[in-house]
Write a structure and sequence with these properties.
heterodimer; A: alpha/beta; Glutaredoxin; 5-stranded mixed beta sheet; B: mainly alpha; 73% helix; globular
């Protein structure tokens, strides 16, 4: 009798642990599914002004109290970098954006954009030493480009056209926007797809 | 009086949870410091030292829980840590700031703040109390080892599954609120 109970106990433990592994795996897969079918992500990239279209021209207030023209034709391309003080990935990318701005200063002007209360933005700007860059606070701008998830970047060329845009989480993704502009394709994904068709 | 396997089981499970959490934080320390900052409870200069201190306490509590001699110390340390971080979560929930990462998940970001998180920490605190409960004297046999080991792993599995479901919650809400 005792032997039978011992064996049943061991078998039950094995089954319980196996079931828990299965439950955890299912919960993880459900999480991944939610992420994949969510409206943010790939879908978001396709909304807002399309690549090649002229960007909406806006005159926006900056954090310094001045005004900044976005989307107007000029001497330089503009990189609109949408950030928020509450986004950890944005914080990680700020030094990278600064180094890119210095390296590409010949043709590119970086503009930081966000919305909400000025106080938190002033604090973040001081901490990250972004005083050299224009910093726009406007929900209008984010709405014009249908920015859903941060950090989001939009590259506008000298004529004020959208040349590349998307969610950026790393230096490579940010640089892919410049590559897309140089190759004259909407995104690196488009370029890869185009190569595939040509073959 | 509890059977002697139960305090051992809870101590071992809590140790795995704490050491696993410390390991995740150590792998993405930058992210954890940012998460601590998000709680907006400390001046900026103290954020990084506080994050390292939390990590050190979590690690120490996890290690101390394992040997029988130091188990009580580890359990009280774990309880103090849980009380501290749960207070931080509750303060931010009262401020209405639910959209921040709890800083307690894996590398892909853990659950956001919710009262569920407070409940989860309450359950962990109860496990810490059970770990120091005085066991009834009983002679342990080989099967008790299996009970302790498998029981601890099962509790850890439940914890991981609950955590994952909590992390899924905001994603599900986003999906539900989507305008077709």
């Amino acid at each position: 009798m005792t032997d039978a109970l011992v064996i049943s106990n061991v078998v039950l433990w094995v089954v319980v642990l196996a079931l828990l592994v299965a439950v955890f795996a299912l919960a993880r897969q459900i999480g991944i599914l939610y992420e994949r079918v969510a409206p943010m992500g790939a879908l978001m990239i396709d909304s807002g002004p399309a690549v090649g279209d002229p960007a909406p021209r806006l005159e926006l207030p900056t954090l310094d109290g001045g005004r900044l023209a976005v989307g107007a034709a000029g001497l330089h391309s503009q990189l609109l970098f949408f950030v928020s003080p509450t986004c950890p990935v944005c914080k990680k990318l700020l030094p990278i954006v600064k180094s890119i701005a210095a390296a590409e200063a010949g043709w590119l002007r970086v503009v930081f954009a966000s919305d909400g209360e000025a106080q938190a933005h002033v604090a973040m700007r001081r901490r990250a030493a972004l005083e050299a860059f224009p910093y726009v606070l406007s929900s209008e701008l984010g709405m014009a480009f249908r920015v859903g998830k941060l950090p989001y970047a939009v590259l506008l060329d000298e004529a004020g056209r959208v040349r590349a845009k998307g969610l950026v989480n790393s230096r490579e993704q940010l640089e892919s926007l410049f590559t897309a502009k140089e190759l004259n394709v909407a995104s690196v994904q488009d370029y890869v797809a185009g190569q595939g068709v040509g073959r | 009086m509890l059977d002697p396997t139960l305090p051992q089981m809870f101590a071992a499970a809590l140790a795995i949870v704490l050491l696993g959490g410390a390991w995740h934080k150590l792998r993405d320390m930058e992210g954890f410091v940012a998460a601590v900052e998000q709680y907006r409870l400390l001046p900026a200069a103290l954020t990084a030292p506080a994050a390292w201190l939390l990590l050190a306490v979590e690690l120490a509590a996890g290690v101390l829980l394992l040997p029988l001699a130091t188990r009580a110390g580890g359990a009280w340390l774990a309880l103090a840590l849980l009380a501290l971080v749960t207070t931080a979560v509750a303060i931010n929930l009262r401020r209405g700031r639910r959209d921040i990462d709890c800083g307690c998940g894996g590398p892909e970001g853990g659950p956001h703040l919710s009262w569920g998180l407070v409940l989860r920490n309450g359950v962990l605190g109860a496990a810490a109390l059970l770990a120091v409960a005085a066991p009834a004297p009983r002679e342990l046999v080989w099967l008790d080892r299996l009970t302790v080991l498998a029981g601890a792993l099962a509790l850890w599995g439940l914890y991981a599954a609950a955590n994952q479901l909590m992390a899924n919650q905001p994603r599900l809400l986003r999906l539900r609120n989507r305008t077709p």
